[in-house]
Amino acid sequence: MKNPILLVSLLISLQASSINTSPIILKPVANKDQYSVPYFSFLRGHKQGRGHGLQWNMSSNNGIEQFKIEFTYEDPSDPYSNWYTAGWVNNSNQNIFKYTDMGCLPGMINYRVTAILSNNAGTVVSGIYSCTISQ
């Protein structure tokens, strides 16, 4: 007799504690790009002649002034690695942005792209793209 009563009381207490009575309220946003920080959808590269071409895409082009392309021959995960600027690309209404690095030397090279946001709002840094350049 004790076991069924304990089981029923346990089930009632579990069911009562798992009910969430507070409603979820979603507020509509007039322009979602106005409030969201853009992010990199992808960063990829390929051999192009004697150089190396990079392509990337952003979730939104709104609020971005320009892009800085950086490279290093050192460990990209090391915070003390020296990153050098390969070039700059201005923002436009394109879906895919492109840059070709014609000055790369043979070896393992790592690239990243930094989006410079408008009005000194900060920067957004892409992931690392690594490749081996041979002669």
End-to-end separation: 84 Å
Beta-strand level of the residues, as a percent range?
Answer: 35-45%
Structural class: mainly beta
Largest sheet: 5 strands, antiparallel
DSSP E strands, number: 8
* Total helical segments: 2
Helical amount among residues, as a percent range?
10-25%
Radius of gyration from the CA trace?
A: 25 Å
Order of helices and strands: HHEEEEEEEE
Coarse morphology: elongated
Low-confidence regions:
16-29
What is the arithmetic mean of pLDDT?
A: 80
Helix-strand blueprint:
Layout: H1 2-17, H2 32-35, E1 40-48, E2 51-58, E3 64-72, E4 84-90, E5 97-101, E6 107-117, E7 123-125, E8 129-133
Antiparallel strand pairs: 1-2, 2-5, 3-4, 3-6, 6-7, 6-8
Question: How does this model look, in words?
Answer:
With about 140 residues, the protein is mainly beta. The protein contains 2 helices and 8 strands. The protein has helices at about 1-15, 30-35, and strands at about 40-50, 50-60, 65-70, 85-90, 95-100, 105-115, 125, 130-135. Strands 3, 4, 6, 7 and 8 form a 5-stranded antiparallel β-sheet that branches. The chain has a 3-stranded antiparallel β-sheet with strand order 1-2-5, with no helix packed on it. A hairpin with a 5-residue loop joins strand 6 (about 105-115) and strand 7. The longest helix has 16 residues, at about 1-15. It starts with a helix and ends with a strand.
Question: Can you describe this structure in just a few lines?
Answer:
This protein is mainly beta. The protein has helices at 2-17, 32-35, and strands spanning 40-48, 51-58, 64-72, 84-90, 97-101, 107-117, 123-125, 129-133.
